[in-house]
C-alpha cells in the first residue's frame, strides 16, 4: 500500500464505528455478517453496511456472499466481510525499510566467495534498481533517451519509492528524502552507498548514459543527486 493509500485507510478508521467493526472482524478469524458487525458496535444494519463498504473501498476488508455456517437458505446468501492482508503503515516523511531489508537479505543469500558483504549489498542494490528501471522502460517504451526525458522517468520511479525527487534544474534532480533514514545516520557510508548503487541501477535499467547518479550529501536530504547533460 502506498503512503497516500495508507493515509486514506487511516482516515477511514478515524470513525469510531468503522474502527470498532474493523477490529471485531480482525479478531473474529472468520467471515462476519453485517448483522454481527452492526450488533458489535450498536448501530443499524443499514448504517453498518455503509461503513463496511467504506472499509472495503479503503482496502482494509474484502466482501463476498457466503452461506453462514454452511447452512443454505432461500434467496441470496448474506454478504460477509473479512480482513485483507494489507498492511497499513504511515510515515511522514516516507520510509521504505522493507526495500533496504530486501537488499541486505539478498546480499546475505547471494554473497560470493570473491566479494565482501558490503560488495554483495552494493551489487544487489544495483540489480534491484536495474529491475525497476527496466520495468519502467518496458512500460513507457521511450526509445532513445535524452537527459531531460531520462530525468523525468527517473523522477517517477524515485517518487514511487519515497525519495521525494525535486527538479532543481532542467538537468538536475535532487532527492529531498532518504527512505532509509534514520538508519542512514547510523551507517551513512553503507546506506548512502546503497542509495547510490540503487539509483545508478535504475538509470542502467532505463537504458540511458546521459544521466548519472552522484553522491552529493546535504543535511536532512538523501545523499544522492541525479545529473544529466544536455
TrEMBL record:
Gene3D superfamilies reported in the protein's UniProt record: Winged helix-like DNA-binding domain superfamily/Winged helix DNA-binding domain
SUPFAM superfamilies named among the record's database cross-references: Winged helix' DNA-binding domain
Stored InterPro entries: ArsR-like_HTH, WH-like_DNA-bd_sf, WH_DNA-bd_sf
The species this protein was found in: Nocardia gamkensis
Top-level taxon of the source organism: Bacteria
Official protein name in the record: Transcriptional regulator
